[in-house]
Design a protein that fits this description.
Elements lengths: L6 E5 L4 H12 L3 E6 L2 H13 L3 E6 L7 H10 L7 E4 L15 H27 L4 E6 L2 H4 L6 H21 L5 E7 L6 H6 L11 H12 L7 E4 L4
Parallel strand pairs: 1-2, 1-4, 2-3, 4-5, 5-6, 6-7
Helix pairs in contact: 1-2, 1-8, 3-4, 4-6
């Protein structure tokens, strides 16, 4: 699918699914804004995109900072008119533990990045999304948000709230703007977060993030009904 002339923003673009998605979007012709905290890692992804003939701009920012997203939105809207694709991928995984032993600080961090930052991104970029002829918002979720699992209470609660925010936003804009929303459950994928959750698992036993990235680009080329949800199976 050609995304020539489209502007895409990907959070958590310094590694894993975010980096792979950014590269796939750039390969499809989009100009990709790379967002993450680690500027050096973003520069590496940007360089790989440039070497492949793609276009990208890095935007180092901590999405958990009080005014980080507002500053990001102001900077981007000052340079571009419309945003065609927003991929909300950045997330943090608290320690897996029984609910009664959840660390309050880690839980707060997860809710801040996984939930509050999601709302702030939608609020900050809603205006630019409305200026696109066919805007798409894609949120990267987890199955534990929809299917609670023992010891995953903190992360699962944050992803359940994440899913709810995106689904509500989809319904709110469905009849007033050309914005469609999809929630992508990547399934078991070879990422640092996965390695943290399953330290004894062989990385080669699960799919690489490029498989998820390809599925995301393919989804962007479809006229899916909003809200929409997909799961990327093992390939």
């Amino acid at each position: 699918m050609s995304m020539e002339g489209q502007l895409a923003l990907v959070t958590g673009a310094s590694q894993g699914i975010g980096a792979a998605t950014a590269k796939a979007l750039a390969a499809a012709g989009a100009h990709v804004i790379l967002v993450a905290r680690n500027a050096k890692a973003l520069e590496q992804v940007e360089e790989e995109i440039f070497e492949s003939g793609g276009k990208a701009t890095i935007a180092p920012v901590d999405l958990a900072e009080a005014d980080g997203i507002a500053r990001l939105a102001t900077a981007i809207s000052g340079r571009w008119g419309a945003l065609d694709v927003l991929v909300i991928n950045a997330a943090t995984l608290p320690t897996l533990t029984p609910v009664w032993q959840i660390d309050a600080r880690e839980f707060n961090q997860a809710m801040t990045l996984n939930v509050l930052a999601t709302q702030a991104l939608l609020a900050g970029f809603d205006g630019m999304l409305r200026k696109s002829k066919d805007a798409r918002v894609l949120g990267i979720t987890s199955s534990v948000g929809a299917e609670p699992r023992a010891y995953w209470g903190a992360y699962g609660a944050s992803k359940a709230a994440f899913d709810t925010l995106l689904n509500c936003y989809a319904q709110e804009v469905r009849n007033t703007a050309s914005i469609r929303v999809a929630i992508v459950d990547p399934g078991a994928t070879r990422t640092k977060m996965r390695a943290k959750a399953y330290p004894g698992e062989s990385p080669e036993s699960v799919k690489p993030p490029e498989v998820v990235a390809d599925a995301i680009v393919a989804l962007l080329g479809e006229q899916f009904a909003s809200p929409h949800r997909i799961r990327v199976n093992q390939t």
